[in-house]
Amino acid sequence: MNRLIGQIARLVLAGFILSVNGCAYDDTFRHLREQQPESESLAIAFSNGIIDNPVQIKKTNTRAVSLLSDHTESMGVWGWQTTSEGVTGRIFQNQKVTFSTTLDKWTYSPVKYWENKSSYRFYAYAPHAATVEGATASIDSATHAISIMGVTLSGSNTIDSGVPVPPSRFSRVTDTDWMIDRSGQSMQGIYRNEVMFNLQHILSKLCVRVRRSDNFMPDSVLAISIDSLKLGSFVSQGDFVQAPDNSHLTLAAEWTPIDTMPRYTLTSAKHVSIPDSAVYILESLLIPQRVNTDQFIRIWYSIGNPGGYINHMDNIFSLNELFIGFETGKNYVITVTIGPDPIKFDAGVQDWTNNYSDDHSIFARP
């Protein structure tokens, strides 16, 4: 241990006199790596990436962030090193990096080490394709655009009963929440340096929220419950190729839905009692796709009166009256308002982490 501390001290001292004697720093850096190859201070390390931080931060449009390890336990990494002589080579080829809950950090093998005076460029996606059956991932060496092929969804719902806020995490369901770092990360070969990725969701998310109308007469209703809700049908498979920029038109073309596979229908939690405040009953991932005229939303619900009588309702609507399509990285929210008047649907789209909207409405009579 004392020997290692002494070597690190010499490294730091050599760094201070780099402008006077650059060779001393190079030699000490190389000596420390060779003498202590297990030293974490020289290893290329990956810190816990962040999710949903905007690529272009604007004071008027901030978004909440969370940690990558809260969503998945693996990621794939590509990396290139450029030496001081201008020679560029790939050092990571879709490297699987996994999160260790025991060590509370991201690990991979074999470990690679920083080279002084080299610059680096890293790209990442999550989770690693090897952890998802049928999926493959690659990167264009020239443009560094990431492709993920064979993405398959089955319509998992993260919500078991009515909740005031959706979980926004899909780690416990079968459908995979795919993410990429759209811009990559540039680093310098400095010891103790860690790579932190900024990942963005590339699927769409659909939420359904239910609330009581304010138009009920006092004491006229004892209970309201959602017996069942279905939305469908949706494309179950698609291929993703990262767009060259973040413009609206190119982002809309990132996904190619594969409509030859069987479609699926989303279902909500059943027999959910609706309290005075709004609750969410569905949160699911979607492959970005256009909405067709035959796609629908259907809701079965019950209203209990003080006299013991229960009204059972069944309404169906065309989904394309609410949305024309689902886009990459967007959150679509349908708010269902149940009352004595016709049932009301409010629908809107926001950033992934925002769950409230009130854009337009359609009506149906009980």
Draw up the topology in text:
Layout: H1 2-16, H2 22-35, E1 45-46, E2 50-51, E3 66-67, E4 74-82, E5 88-100, E6 105-107, E7 119-126, E8 136-139, E9 146-152, E10 179-180, E11 185-188, E12 194-195, E13 198-201, E14 204-212, E15 223-234, E16 237-241, H3 248-252, E17 255-258, E18 264-267, E19 272-273, E20 279-286, E21 289-290, E22 296-304, E23 310-318, E24 325-326, E25 330-338, E26 343-351, E27 360-364
Helix pairs in contact: 1-2
Care to describe what's here?
The chain has 3 helices and 27 strands. Helix content is 9%, strand content 41%. Strands 2, 3, 4, 5, 6, 7, 10, 11 and 13 form a 9-stranded mixed β-sheet that branches. A 5-stranded mixed β-sheet has the order 20-14-25-26-27, with no helix packed on it. Strands 15, 18, 19, 22 and 23 form a 5-stranded antiparallel β-sheet that branches. The longest helix has 15 residues, at 2-16. It has helices at residues 2-16, 22-35, 248-252, and strands at residues 45-46, 50-51, 66-67, 74-82, 88-100, 105-107, 119-126, 136-139, 146-152, 179-180, 185-188, 194-195, 198-201, 204-212, 223-234, 237-241, 255-258, 264-267, 272-273, 279-286, 289-290, 296-304, 310-318, 325-326, 330-338, 343-351, 360-364. It has 366 residues and is mainly beta.
